[in-house]
Amino acid sequence: MDNMKFFAFRYFLVPFKQKTLFSSEIENKNDIMRNIFKEIEKTNKITHKIPNKFNKKNTLYFTHKFSNDIYLCKFSHEKQITKHEEINDDIQSTKDIDLPFIYLIIDLQRQIILFQKNTSTFRRITTAANKFKKWTEIEIKNFDFSFKIEEITYENTFWDYVDKSTEIYNLNLHLNSPNLFEGKLKAEDLLKKLKGFFNNTETDINLENEEGKLTLKKDILKSFIKYIAGGGGKWRLDSNYSGKRQKLKSQKNENIKIIEFPKNIEENLNTEYKIIIKNKIMEIDDIMNDKNDL
Description:
By secondary structure, this protein is an alpha+beta fold. The chain has helices at residues 25-43, 125-139, 155-164, 186-198, 218-232, 271-285, and strands at 3-15, 45-49, 57-65, 70-77, 79-87, 90-98, 101-107, 112-116, 145-151, 165-176, 202-208, 233-241, 244-249, 258-262. The protein has 2 domains: 3-152 and 256-293, no CATH class; 155-253, no CATH class.
């Protein structure tokens, strides 16, 4: 049986307002998301109209709770379809509403979301992530938090590009303000200091050499690239790669970490399956010991 593929993302809840020393920021932000999913568990669904020119509804449906922090849901995207029916011995066109969906697995403790790849619902996985981001922004609009979501990627892809580039013109690192890696990375320490000074929700580091002679030291940049690979941001590299100048990005589909589950996921909700899902999420979350990046 073919498996379903899930793309791994990390979400951040970053406070707009400055927090006092020893404040319970982490507990508060986790409670916000936990309360949302407790409500979904209670009501079975939450629907929001996403504000854009189409004004369509997106709905998150409760499917199963694997643990206090791990949920399986369906995320639907409202579409209007045209049906052709026989009416009074003739064929007539009628409008109807269709609700294609993807499965979504979320770990509220690790702040990881797995989006099912289903191009008939969302052509691009980033579209699914952006729709969920807008859905969540409506849910948390009464709180002083910014909701951000980034791909969890392979760290070694960046260094492969660097090693095989003959000229490097620019490197941009886009980093979300830290709130989940528990001080494991030096980059996080710097970002915490910057947030303490400026109360910024994002940080951009831009390095440029217009002659293509930019030097990228691994011992200096490794912590930042690992932070990004863990879902803490994104990078963009402008270099001469494979014989031509290219702008390479961390968010390419082939660079996003993928987990596979059987297609009959709703028929495998037993204890053994719960352990499998938890272990796979833990593997994705292990930013310090990523075997895929060795």
